[in-house]
């Protein structure tokens, strides 16, 4: 874990003293000079703009301590209760993540671009950086950050559209080089992840099995046109009614007709855990326990707990292991294997078991 603090993080107005570390690495920071648009509204155009920008700009070489701040140490009164076991779980998750990165990724020269921090939301009062992973509790985590920041008194008061389209929370790539550098070094960095197949099915159900004026015309029409034999004119016109098997064909196609989307992209790409040393790794499967442990560690108000309500399609059952298996049962063994290969790094890095026995 590197050096650790002996107590919880200080209040927001207290001076911060950085811990030293012997894991120093050079990082290249490529800074942006344009106003970005949300990746969800135009992911293809945004990727192209970033790519052109990275090619054009000369990188700025700076030195940064890796893990200058780590998960806070437990206070003495915490050490004989459940917090201690949760703390050990965090240490183990971080170890597996680091070992996977060491084995599969080269960290000799680490390059951080605006793309790498574009999914990270900033809460300055409690010094939190949260990497958004869609379909892994991100709506409720944004609600929590808004309450911590004083933007609302309760998570129940914040509507779904306010969470995602209100622009109340800052993103890390909206700061200048100094602001990004300072926050990466001194804030608590955390992400929450979910079993990859379950997350994928949850995204499919949300975006393709309900009316949607973005995913149906943009993704649905392209998917049906390419992968459905004898598609009806109505299906081609609306893009509605995409089947899970067609969706998987699109996902696995190296020449897919439309680009990748954050809702089914790899966590490894969304949050760059081999470049950004996260202090806390929570799991959707143990959300309530992990989330409230995190809030305890950062010294959040005791009356603030992680909300469990489902604000989209609330009458529909959450995507479970059983539901996920029913969707993947529609695929051939080869398609299941290729899907597992597609998310292999996420399975490995976050220590999820193989979802089917016939996978290798």
Automatic annotation (TrEMBL):
Membrane topology field: Single-pass type II membrane protein
The answer to whether keyword Zinc applies is no
Q: Which UniProt keywords apply?
A: Carbohydrate metabolism, Glycoprotein, Golgi apparatus, Membrane, Signal-anchor, Transferase, Transmembrane, Transmembrane helix
List where the protein spans the membrane.
Answer: none
Localisation per UniProt entry = Golgi apparatus membrane
GO function term, MF aspect, one? sulfotransferase activity
Per the record, the GO terms for biological process are: carbohydrate biosynthetic process; proteoglycan biosynthetic process
Against Pfam families, the record matches this protein to: Sulfotransfer_2
InterPro entries the UniProt entry points to: Carb_sulfotrans_8-10 (IPR018011), Sulfotransferase (IPR005331)
Residues annotated as coiled-coil are: none
Q: Chief location of this protein?
A: Golgi
What GO cellular component term, any one, is given? Golgi membrane
User: According to the UniProt record, where is the region Disordered?
Assistant: 1-22
Keyword Membrane in the entry? The reply is yes
- EC number(s) per entry: 2.8.2.-
For this protein, the record's PANTHER family field holds: CARBOHYDRATE SULFOTRANSFERASE, CARBOHYDRATE SULFOTRANSFERASE 8
Q: Which family does it belong to?
A: Belongs to the sulfotransferase 2 family.
- The name of this protein is Carbohydrate sulfotransferase
């Amino acid at each position: 874990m590197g050096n650790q603090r002996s107590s919880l993080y200080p209040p927001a107005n207290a001076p911060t003293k950085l811990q030293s570390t012997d894991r120093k690495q050079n990082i290249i920071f490529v800074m942006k000079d344009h106003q970005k648009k949300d990746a969800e509204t135009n992911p293809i155009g945004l990727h192209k703009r970033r790519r052109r920008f990275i090619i054009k700009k000369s990188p700025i070489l700076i030195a940064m301590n890796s893990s200058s701040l780590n998960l806070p140490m437990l206070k003495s009164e915490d050490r004989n209760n459940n917090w201690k076991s949760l703390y050990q779980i965090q240490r183990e998750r971080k170890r597996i993540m680091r070992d996977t990165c060491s084995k599969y990724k080269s960290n000799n020269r680490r390059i951080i671009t605006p793309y790498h921090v574009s999914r990270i939301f900033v809460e300055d009062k409690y010094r939190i950086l949260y990497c958004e992973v869609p379909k892994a509790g991100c709506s409720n985590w944004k609600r929590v950050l808004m309450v911590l920041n004083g933007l609302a008194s309760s998570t129940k008061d914040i509507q779904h559209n306010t969470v995602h389209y209100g622009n109340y929370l800052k993103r890390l790539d909206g700061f200048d080089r100094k602001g990004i550098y300072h926050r990466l070094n001194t804030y608590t960095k955390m992400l929450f992840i979910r079993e990859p197949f379950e997350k994928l099915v949850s995204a499919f159900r949300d975006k393709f099995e309900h009316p949607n004026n973005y995913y149906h015309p943009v993704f649905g029409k392209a998917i049906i046109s390419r992968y459905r034999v004898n598609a009806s004119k109505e299906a081609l016109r609306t893009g509605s009614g995409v089947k899970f098997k067609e969706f998987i064909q699109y996902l696995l196609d190296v020449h897919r007709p439309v680009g990748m989307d954050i809702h089914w992209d790899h966590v490894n790409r969304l949050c760059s855990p081999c470049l950004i040393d996260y202090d806390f790794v929570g799991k959707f499967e143990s959300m309530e326990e992990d989330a409230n442990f995190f809030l305890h560690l950062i010294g959040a108000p005791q009356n603030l707990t992680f909300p469990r309500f489902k604000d989209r399609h609330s009458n529909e059952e959450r995507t479970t292991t059983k539901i996920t298996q029913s969707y993947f049962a529609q695929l051939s063994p080869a398609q299941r294997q290729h899907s597992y290969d597609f998310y292999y790094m996420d399975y490995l890095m976050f220590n999820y078991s193989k979802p089917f026995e016939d996978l290798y």
